[in-house]
Amino acid sequence: xxxxxxxxxxxxxxxxxxxxxxxxxxxxxxxxxxxxxxxxxxxxxxxxxxxxxxxxxxxxxxxxxxxxxxxxxxxxxxxxxxxxxxxxxx
Amino acid sequence: xxxxxxxxxxxxxxxxxxxxxxxxxxxxxxxxxxxxxxxxxxxxxxxxxxxxxxxxxxxxxxxxxxxxxxxxxxxxxxxxxxxxxxxxxxxxxxxxxxxxxxxxxxxxxxxxxxxxxxxxxxxxxxxxxxxxxxxxxxxxxxxxxxxxxxxxxxxxxxxxxxxxxxxxxxxxxxxxxxxxxxxxxxxxxxxxxxxxxxxxxxxxxxxxxxxxxxxxxxxxxxxxxxxxxxxxxxxxxxxxxxxxxxxxxx
Lengths: 90, 250
Known about the structure:
The complex is a heterodimer. By secondary structure, chain A is mostly helical. Chain A has 3 helices and no strands. In chain A, helix 1 packs antiparallel against helix 2 (34-66) and helix 2 runs antiparallel to helix 3. Chain A is flat and about 50 Å long. In chain B, 77% of the residues lie in helices and 0% in strands. Chain B has 10 helices and no strands. The two termini of chain B are 27 Å apart. Chain B has one domain.
């Protein structure tokens, strides 16, 4: 399981840096109106999306890297639960 | 001014959350209700997004230190995510007064959990790490997270420590990762329903990311016992305010 930890650490670090950069830079700019403000809002929302998606991407990466079908099934059930929640609300 | 306040609040909540294996929602939800004057459901949704940030920043460091148990996390997570989604869907139908009272009780429990104990050595597992009891507890942790805007770490840490037999530091580290998935599952439900105050997310999340990352880096150097005592006192104070609001009718 050692390599899984390094894979997860790398993915989460990338998400952390991207999240801080996007939300940190675009967040304050989003308060300004106009076209630039709208682009900044989009960038800040992208940063939030990256952060929310990161644990799920990590989960799938670990399950696939482990090459054990039972772990892939558990990861799949977790993703289905999250997606089901979104679809049921819509 | 509110943005700066939320940044500082997020940094504190993220730091404490990452240190104690919880998401920081127990601080964020009351703060968003009392300081930003958000409705309870919007505070829960906003908090869940920020709890994911605590998890990402904290577990990025903890995975690098090999403190997270990936197999236990993978096996228990499906049940926690299911609990979070079901609770998120049920939340609009639960009376707000009941949510305030439940949150108050949760905070008192968290305060009791946070108070440092003399002994934190590894316990022998009292049941199979991935047995029915552990799965049920993971589902309950997820449901508490989805309903009350916390990550469920208040349940996960004792679950991983007592039921799965992980030592306290590994239990807290694994819990930090688990709460990201649980809170993320619940957060998408609130996001789709429009129950997230997006303008408040950016400063709070930024504070959470920075606070959780710094706290995780410095976790070994900080006298956690004093931090935990201060945290417990804060939780009791907020719990009393939440319970008072629940009793007075929300």
